[in-house]
Amino acid sequence: MQQTSALLPFDFNKKKFSITYSVPSSPFALEIQNLGKCQCLGNHKWSDPEKINGWMISAETATFMKAGGLGMIASELPEAFNRKYLSQDESLTVITPMYLGDTKKKKAHFDGKTYFGAENKSADLQKLCDITVPFMNENQEFVDYSVTVYKGTCENTPYIFMSNERFFNIDPHNDNPPAQDGCYILNKYGINEVERFAFFSKAVYEFVKYSIKTHTQPSTIIANDWHSGALSGLMKYLPISLVSKNLMSEEDADKIRSIPIIHIAHHLGYQGWDYPNTARILNSLYELQTNFVFKNAKTIKNSNKRTVNTLIVHDCYNQASCNFHLADRVVTVSKNYLEEVSKELELGYDFRDILKIRKDHRTFFGIINGYDKKLISPNEQKVKAINDFFGNTNFKMFDEKSMDNKKHNKSEFIKLISKISTDEEYKQKLIPLIDTYKFEDISKDVKNFAKTPIICATSRLVEQKGYDIGAQAILNWIKKHTDENIEFPIFLLGGAGSVELFKMLTKLKDKVAKINKEAAKRIYVFHGYKDQFAYAMQLASDFYMMPCRFEPCGLTQMEAMAKGALPIATSTGGLVDSIDDKIDGFRTEVFFSNSRHVYGNNTTARRLQNNENAFSETLDESLQTFYDMPNFITAMQRRAMEKDFSWDTAGGSLEKYHTLFHRGHP
Prior knowledge:
Number of strands: 24
Shape: globular
Structural class: alpha/beta
Radius of gyration: 26 Å
C-alpha cells in the first residue's frame, strides 16, 4: 500500500504556490539541498577510471530509430570510440528502447531472435535479464511494469535494448498530432514522448541497480539530451533518500552515486515539458521518496526565479532540468553554441544562468559533433544506388580533385526535376509521400548549366531552420535582379515538418510569379523527405541555404560541404565553428536573437538591423560571387570537400570525449 503523504498531490502545481526551503532536519536533507550547488561548481573530484566502460543512454539512434542529429551522435560517437579504443579494452555501449510498431513512416519489429529497427538495420539479440520498473498509470496507481533487457552488437558496437510494449510501442493513437512520428509519437496506449522517456530513465536507473549487483556497472554514463534528463536525479538524489530510510545500503548507494553522468545538450529549445502530468511523473520517478526529494531539491543560487527547484521549472515538469543542475558535466555540441546559451536568455532559456555558472567553473564544455566522412562524401556505391532508384538518371562521381562531374550533375538534376514535374506516374512511383507545388519543366529554359546556380534547403520545416528568413531573402534578391540578363538561380526548398511553413513557401513562389514568371518557374517547393531525393539535390547543388534562428551544431551543412554545396548560413551556433566565411562557405556578418545582436560588430549590426537583412546581403554576395568569379567558387567547393569533420581525426571530437571521460574536461 503506497503512503500517499509521501507523494506529491495530483494538483500541487495547478494552483499558486511558492517553494521555500526549511533548515534541513537531517544530514540527508542537507546533502540533497547542497547537491545542485556542488554539481554545478564541480566540487566533487573527478575519478579517472583505469578503463572506460561507458554507457550512451539515448532514445534515438541513427542505427535503429532516428529523427535528427542527436540520433547520429548516439550511434556514430560509440562506433568511432570502439573502432579506436576497443583494442585497448575500452568501450561505449548504447542503451536504447526497443521500439515496436508501425507509424506508417517508421516501422520496427522483433521476431524473438533478430530486431529489425526503423532505419533498415538489424541485430541478433540475446536476452540479458528482466527488470521491474514501478511507474504510475493514468489512474495514479503504481504498476510494476516488466522490462526485458536484450543485448546485441551492430557496427562493432554493443547495444542494450529495453523492451516494454506499453511505453515503447510506436503504433499511433487516433489523436496523435500529424507532426509527431517515430519515438515521439503519441502511441495507442496514450503514452506521450515525455512520459515515455521518463519511464526510459527510470528503467535505466533500475538497470544500473542490476549492474552493481552483477559487477558490470559502467565507468561513465553519457545521457543524450533531454530524453534521459531525469537520470541525474534518480542516481544522485534517490540513493541518498533511500539510505535515510534504510531501504538501500550505503555501499550500493555510493556505487550508484559515484558513476559520473555527462549530459549532452543538443537543442535547448527542446526540454521535455509536461504540465498536466507533473505530479504523476515525479511520483513515478521517486515513489515514496518524492515529497522528501522535492522539498529539498534546491538549485544553486541564480537570478532566474523560475529555476529554484531542480525537478521542475516554475510549476511544470521539465525532463532536461535535473541533468542541467545535477549532471557531473554538461556538454553541448559546439563551442559557439556554448557561448550563446550561457550568455543569451533567448537561446539558453531558463538554464542560461545555470550554464553560465557551469562554464565559469569548467563543468560545461562545447565539443562539436563529428561525422563519419565516408558516409557523407560522394561514393560510387551511393551514386549508383541513386541512379538505380530514379531509373533514368546518370549522376556521376566527383571529388575535390576533379569537379567536372559536379557540373554534369547539375544538368542531370534539372532533367530529373523536370520529369517529376511532367510525369505524375513517375513522381508517384518514386516519391509518393512528397507533396509538390506547381513543379514546372525547365529543361529547355536553362541555356547554360554551368552559369545556373542551384541552391537547395532540405532541412526540417520548423521555425528554428529559418525558412521564412530565407524566403524573404529570395524575394529581396529577385526584386533586386529581376531585370538582369542572367540565368536565374534554381531554388529547391522543402522538407518534412510544418504544413504552415510549406504553405509559406508556396506563397513565396506565387509572389515571385507576379514579379518575374521565369524566375518563379525555377522555385521548387515541396513537403516531405526522401533520402535519395535529398542526396541527388546535394550532388547537383552549388549552395545549401541555412538561415537558422539557432543551430547548436548542424549536420546538414557538413553533408552539403562534403558534396561541394557551399553553405549560405546565419552566424549562429556550430555554423560559426564549421564554416569559414568566404573560404568554404558564406556566413552572415552578424547574427541577432529576438532582442539584440549576439554575433558581429556593432556598426554592422546597426546597418543590417535584423537577420532577414543580414541573410539577404549574404545570399546576394554568394550569388554575385558565383556569377562574377566562377573559379573562386570552384576553389571554395574544393576546400569545402577537403574539410574533414570525422570523429577520429587527429585532435578531433573523439579525442576530446576520450579525455573528458578520463579527466573530467576535454
